[in-house]
Design brief:
The complex is a heterodimer. By secondary structure, chain A is an all-alpha fold. Chain A has 18 helices and no strands. In chain A, helix 6 packs across helix 17 and helix 7 crosses helix 15. By secondary structure, chain B is of the alpha/beta class. Chain B has a domain of 179 residues: 3-Layer(aba) Sandwich (Rossmann fold). In chain B, 35% of the residues lie in helices and 25% in strands. Chain B has nine helices and twelve strands. Chain B has a six-stranded mixed beta sheet with strand order 6-7-8-3-9-10, with helices on both faces. A four-stranded antiparallel beta sheet of chain B has the order 2-1-4-5, covered by helices on one side. Chain B has a two-stranded antiparallel sheet with strand order 11-12. The chains are: A mainly alpha, B alpha/beta.
Chain lengths: 367, 257
């Protein structure tokens, strides 16, 4: 300690700067988010996200003007609608979009399988099942305690993690040969979860369970800050945990053995990606139901836009996923006013033809 | 400073793939493993690389026990090139080569990054391929790109004393004669710059011409170890391969028909 104190002042400053260079400055600037073109795409996507969030919070069945609100001209009712209804809704749709896009990209990378999508492989269904079971069975005192808001996302995460674990067992540790297997398991899990959720919604009188449509096609409606905040914290930390794995996800494209020869602890990487995507998808589905095809379509669009390296793919998929769901939610609210379309209807309408196109492309071995 | 294997056994299930193998890979030397199919050459290479769990024996990298080195530490000592899997996503050749760069995030090494990649790309003669998509390359071209990646993994600035090793499992498969020779020359160059090379080869002529030492494998054991002249004799080759072999020495090659 004494030695350090006796150092001239400039030395410790230099040390500080050097450490900066190695950590923060490096991560933000020198490692870049891919090439200059890719960085530009990410910045543009983020700008698009801000614009769509502004549009989304200003539009809906209730008239609102952002400018009025900022200038203080809005009525109390208007500001309540904005702060308590619109904003949480926009925040939820953005976070769900980001987690679905990012998890899709990371799972596709980890499995080396362009068809891996949290929806297709059954992870979302597992999360929905977990969440709906907890709603039916959880006792009232637990729900009313401070733990209450955490119950739902945690149940979703548990459901999602169980499905990924099952996939892991059935595909012998996500070997490359497991592509077909994974999709078949996904079909089975989707069917099982569909039946279970259906039965639960019919036998349960609990209004909290909402409708079958909510679970199968998703909705961002009716969310409150109390319910939202824990999920936001979980999703946000999952995203932050996932993003720095970009280089390892690049290396694992060479195969697991090759990646470990290049210094990647493959087991750790698997745990990391699985844990964070289960957390992100689980918490998302618990609050908004199953929203299909975002995790599949978004990473592919991002690859087509700018490339396949994960330092670009991961953040760009998160940004595009968020933008896409925020805009889709605006459509859902505006198309058949004053009623609302389920959000999953819109994403599936866009996503399923895309999925078909992808299958045809795969057949030609373009990937 | 060597990679040292000390009485290594490897068994998978009932089958004993390697029996009591001791062998050193020495910096500055090219050591070739030859032998019939299934003799255990590739298994031994994997054992040295640290991919397998040994049933018995130990491997040392520069006197450190391999099993005590972390996965990341291992990657600084040795790079491996073997049969590679197809790439699912459409990476560029440059992306693939750059995957060999281990020093992401270190200020000092970032400064060398462009120089190192450029050197390796020129050394492996793949300048014309660099901007292409990896999946559009032929099998032989892909091999050369992976080779460049393996070299980049070991790259250190001139004058570095750290001992590093290059483990190559049939790097010449799918290559035409010209690229075969040029890759072997690059391997020779790396060896003379102080890298220890272990190479699994099928072509005995090339092994005789390029290797400093040869280990002849048969049924999981080393039958002979020494200079090409000591190992590649009519007697030993005929026994191991089970076909009559004649060795005729010409100024350049040993023919074995």
């Amino acid at each position: 300690m004494d030695q350090e104190h006796s150092q001239p002042h400039y030395l410790s400053l230099k040390k500080l700067l050097f450490n900066m260079e190695n950590s923060i400055a490096h991560r933000v600037f020198t490692s870049r988010f891919g090439s200059p073109k890719q960085t530009t795409i990410i910045v543009l996507l983020l700008m698009l996200l801000v614009v769509s969030a502004l549009v989304a919070s200003a539009n809906g069945s209730f008239n609102l003007s952002f400018i009025d609100l900022i200038l203080g001209k809005a009525t109390t009712l208007q500001s309540i609608v904005m702060l308590e209804i619109r904003l949480p809704r926009v925040a939820l749709s953005a976070l769900v979009g980001a987690s679905l896009g990012l998890s899709g990209a990371a799972l596709q990378g980890l499995f080396r399988n362009p068809l891996a999508d949290p929806g297709l492989i059954g992870v979302s269904a597992g999360a929905a099942l977990g969440a709906s079971i907890i709603i039916v069975i959880s006792p009232a005192f637990l729900v009313n305690s401070f733990l209450g808001p955490f119950l739902l996302p945690l149940a979703g995460i548990f459901g999602a993690a169980s499905v990924i674990f099952l996939l892991y067992l059935l595909t012998h540790g996500f070997g490359y040969q497991g592509v077909t297997y994974m999709l078949l398991v996904g079909i089975a899990v989707n069917a099982i979860a569909g039946v279970a959720i259906g039965v639960l919604t019919y036998i349960s009188s609990d209004a909290e369970l909402r409708t079958l449509t909510f679970w199968t096609m998703g909705s961002f409606g009716g969310v409150t800050w109390t319910l939202l905040t824990p999920a936001l914290v979980i999703i946000f930390s999952a995203i932050l945990y996932m993003l720095p794995a970009y280089r390892k996800l690049d290396l694992i494209q060479l195969g697991e053995v090759e990646a470990s020869r290049l210094g990647v602890d493959v087991k750790k990487l698997k745990y990391r990606v699985i844990l964070s995507s289960a957390a992100a998808v689980g918490a998302s589905v618990a609050l908004s139901g199953m929203i299909g095809f975002v995790g599949l379509v978004v990473p592919h669009l991002v690859r087509l836009l700018g490339g396949v390296n994960h330092n670009y793919l991961l953040p760009a998929s998160a940004a595009l996923g968020a933008t896409l769901l925020v805009s889709a939610d605006v459509l859902a609210r505006l198309l058949i006013q004053p009623a609302e379309l389920p959000i999953g209807l819109i994403t599936s309408a866009i996503g399923s033809p895309f999925f078909l196109w992808l299958v045809f492309r795969l057949k030609k071995n373009d990937y | 400073m060597t990679i040292k294997a000390v009485s290594v056994d490897v068994s998978i299930g009932e089958a004993q793939l390697l029996k009591d193998i001791s062998l050193d890979v020495v910096p500055g030397e090219v050591l070739a493993l030859v032998g019939p199919n299934g003799a255990g050459k590739s298994t031994f290479l994997s054992a040295l690389a640290g991919d397998l769990i040994l049933s018995r024996g130990q491997v040392f990298y520069n006197q450190c026990d391999l099993s005590k080195l972390s996965i990341q530490e291992r990657s600084f000592y040795r790079s491996v090139m073997s049969q590679s899997q197809p790439m699912v996503f459409d990476f560029s050749v440059r992306n693939i080569v750059e995957m060999g760069w281990l020093h992401q995030g270190h200020g000092f090494y970032n400064a060398h990054f462009s120089l190192a990649t450029q050197q390796v790309i020129e050394q492996c003669n793949i300048t014309s391929l660099v901007e292409r998509r990896f999946n559009t390359l032929s099998g032989g071209e892909q091999k050369r790109v992976h080779f460049a990646r393996a070299l980049l993994q070991l790259w250190l600035p001139e004058g570095s004393k750290e001992c590093r090793y290059l483990l190559l499992d049939e790097p010449l498969a799918n290559l035409d004669i010209a690229h075969e020779l040029s890759m072997l020359n690059v391997i020779k160059q790396s060896a003379s710059s102080g890298i220890g090379v272990l190479i699994v080869l099928h072509d005995l002529n090339l092994a005789a011409k390029f290797a400093d030492k040869i280990a002849l494998f048969d049924q999981g054991k080393i039958v002979r170890l020494g200079t090409p002249e000591q190992v590649l004799t009519e007697d030993s080759l005929s026994t191991v391969y089970g076909v009559p072999v004649t060795v005729a020495q010409t100024p350049l090659t040993i023919s074995y028909y």
